[in-house]
Write a structure and sequence with these properties.
This protein is of the alpha+beta class. It has helices spanning about 10-20, 95-100, 135-145, 160-170, and strands at about 20-30, 35-40, 55-60, 65-70, 75, 80-85, 105-115, 125-130, 150-155, 180-185. The structure holds flavin-adenine dinucleotide.
Length: about 190
C-alpha cells in the first residue's frame, strides 16, 4: 500500500493515530474536473460508525496532526465505504492532498462527527454555499423526505453565510428555519 508521503511518522504521532484515527485505503479517485476529486475510501475500521447527512469527516492530509474536513456524500457503515467530493481551491495541505491522492493509498480519518444540525431532513431544503458543500448537497438530496416549510442550510464561506442570513431575516424567514456552518474563511486554515 502506498503512503501519500515519504515521511516516517514518529512515536507520538503513531500512538495518536492508533488511538484516535480510523485506518482506510483509497479505493478510487475520480477526477471530476481540474479542481474537483470524487474519492472513495474503504476499510473495516469504517464499519459501525454512526453517520447522518451533514456530519463531517476529518482526513489526515499531511503529518503530523494535519487534518482537513470533508462532508461525506455517502457513508456506508455496514460495508465500510465512504465517498467524498473534495475541491482543491489552491495552496494548502488539503488541496495538495486532493491533487496527489491515488487509488491504493493509505488514508487515516477522524470521525464521522456531528457538524450541521439538519434535524429530520424532511424537505424542501434551500442550500446556500460555494464549491465546498457540493458533497453536502448530494447527501442532503439523498436523505430528504416531504415537508411543508423550507429549511435554509447555509454553508461555504463565512462572510457569504452572514450576508445570506441577513437577507433571509430581512425577508421574514424565521431563525428556526436556518441552519449554518462555515466551511472556510479568508485567512483561516483547516476549519472543522
Ligand atoms: C464542516 C466542514 C465540512 C467541509 N466539507 C467539505 C467538503 O465536503 N468538500 C470540500 O471540498 N471542502 C469541504 N470543507 C472545506 C475544506 O475543509 C477546506 O476548503 C479545506 O480545509 C481547505 O484546506 P487547504 O489545506 O487546501 O487550505 P487551508 O490550509 O485550510 O487554507 C489556506 C487558505 O486558503 C483559504 N481557503 C480554504 N478553503 C478555501 C476555499 N474552498 N476556497 C477559497 N479559499 C479557501 C483559507 O481561507 C486560507 O486563507 C469543509 C469544511 C468544514 C469546516
Amino acid at each position: 500500500m502506498r503512503f501519500t508521503e515519504d515521511r516516517v511518522p514518529g512515536l507520538l504521532e503513531r500512538a495518536f493515530d492508533r488511538l484516535l484515527l480510523r485506518s482506510a485505503r483509497v479505493a478510487a479517485v475520480h477526477r471530476v474536473s481540474d479542481r474537483f476529486r470524487l474519492i472513495d475510501l474503504e476499510g473495516d475500521a469504517l464499519q459501525g460508525a454512526a453517520w447522518a447527512a451533514g456530519h463531517k469527516l476529518q482526513v489526515k492530509v499531511a503529518g503530523p496532526f494535519t487534518a482537513r474536513t470533508f462532508t461525506p456524500i455517502v457513508f456506508d457503515a455496514v460495508r465500510g465505504h465512504v465517498r467524498l467530493l473534495g475541491y482543491a481551491h489552491g495552496a494548502g495541505p488539503g488541496s495538495d492532498w486532493l491533487r496527489r491522492v491515488q487509488a491504493g493509498d493509505a488514508c487515516q480519518v477522524f470521525g464521522p462527527h456531528r457538524s450541521l444540525a439538519l434535524g429530520d431532513l424532511a424537505g424542501p431544503v434551500v442550500l446556500h454555499g460555494d464549491e465546498t458543500p457540493f458533497g453536502l448537497a448530494a447527501a442532503v438530496a439523498a436523505a430528504m423526505g416531504a415537508r411543508a416549510q423550507p429549511r435554509c442550510v447555509l454553508t461555504g464561506r463565512a462572510q457569504s453565510i452572514q450576508q445570506a442570513r441577513q437577507a433571509l431575516k430581512g425577508r421574514g424567514v424565521p431563525a428556526s428555519c436556518i441552519v449554518a456552518k462555515a466551511y472556510w474563511a479568508p485567512g483561516k486554515t483547516g476549519m472543522d
